[in-house]
Amino acid sequence: MNINSFMPVKVISEENCVINSSKIFKNFGKRCLVVTGGSSAEKSGALSDCLQALDKENITYTVFSGVEPNPSTKTCYNAGVKARETDAEFIVGIGGGSPLDAAKAVAIFAANPDFQHDSVYVRAVPSAHLPLILIGTTAGTGSEVTGVSVLTNSDTGLKKSISGADCYAEISFCDYRYTCSVPKAVTVSTALDAFAHAVEAYLASSANELTFVYSEKAISLLKDFILNINTFDGTLTDKEREQLYMASLFAGFAINISGTDFPHTLGYYLTENHNIPHGRACATFMPCLLERAKKYCPERLGAIENILDCNSEKLTEIIKQAADVNIKLTEAQAQQISARWKNGVKNFDRSPGGFTFIDCVEALKAL
């Protein structure tokens, strides 16, 4: 048996689940801080539903709407201060990956008044943290069900993840209707992110039998969208939106067990320096991952090809066009960027065949 896993999040998934399950909020206190990003929480209807549910249960709240894309540690720290100032007893995060990841850090900062903005990277795990409820509005990140939060260090400008038992939500509300207001470009990038999660988890050396179940389900749900992604006109039926969100959750379950591979790590560079959205940034390095899988784990790659009914060469062309990244790097630039990971990272170690500093340089040069 090889099904080791840990997934403590209570997932509630149905239409109108936030309002229908409003009583659950009362289990966590009488005051909360609601953490959101720009306008997505409002446009999706998720913020309105959340505030209606809180009002219904006589829970007072303060809304912190200052989370930027690729949330910074100082923003999360400031929200944690706001949570303490308002005596919040729990945190609610609403949005795509950035607000949800931020909310995880906010819950930690709120319970640790002695922390500085970068203390989350060196904290003892698990640290003290407020209870956390998440409401997703995009179909891609899977942050609703993972114990990982990707933050941008405000001092260095570099993205780095934190993880642990203190990064899981107590409750995740999953209503696909909140994804219906997402624009075309975001739908594409988040779908690529979910696909990257499913494929990277499946090919990781850390994958187990449960990973395969979750990844295969995610890939099958994403199949039609991914194969036709480059002719996507921005319109989807409710059923198709629901499938994408389900795929995102199953892919999230998969990486919660196995983690991601080198494309996610290298994708940080593209997001930090070229403003490439996270999903497209990860997809940029998928052709390299597929090529390595052909050499080091061909049977797993073959299983993915069978699910998609598409060979890796064709899939590579589809993904390259969808990622739409064309950046030229010299040998010296590639080496300089790669030096950041020269001491190795977990994502490299579990990639097919392992992934070395030299491999990193070559992957960046191949852009």
Q: Main beta sheet, described?
A: 6 strands, parallel
- What is the global morphology? globular
- The fourth-level CATH homologous superfamily of the largest domain is Dehydroquinate synthase-like - alpha domain
Question: What is the percent of helical residues?
Answer: 40-55%
Helix and strand composition category: alpha/beta
> End-to-end span in angstroms?
40 Å
Number-wise, the strands total 8
**What is the tally of helical segments?**
16
Which SSEs are present, and which pair or pack?
Layout: E1 10-13, H1 17-20, E2 31-35, H2 40-44, H3 46-56, E3 60-64, H4 73-85, E4 90-95, H5 97-110, E5 132-136, E6 148-152, E7 159-163, E8 171-174, H6 184-203, H7 209-227, H8 238-258, H9 262-274, H10 278-284, H11 286-296, H12 298-308, H13 312-323, H14 331-338, H15 346-349, H16 357-365
Parallel strand pairs: 1-8, 2-3, 2-4, 4-5, 5-8
Antiparallel strand pairs: 6-7
Features:
globular, 367 residues, two-stranded antiparallel ribbon, 16 helices, Rossmann fold, single chain, 6-stranded parallel sheet, alpha/beta, 50% helix, 8 strands
Describe the structure in your own words.
The protein is an alpha/beta fold and 367 residues long. The chain folds into two domains: 10-179, Rossmann fold (3-Layer(aba) Sandwich); 184-365, Up-down Bundle (Dehydroquinate synthase-like, alpha domain), CATH 1.20.1090. The protein is built from 16 helices and eight strands. The strands form two sheets. It has a six-stranded parallel sheet, with helices on both faces. A two-stranded antiparallel ribbon has the order 6-7. Strand 6 (148-152) and strand 7 (159-163) form a beta hairpin. Helix 4 packs across helix 5 and helix 10 (278-284) packs across helix 13.
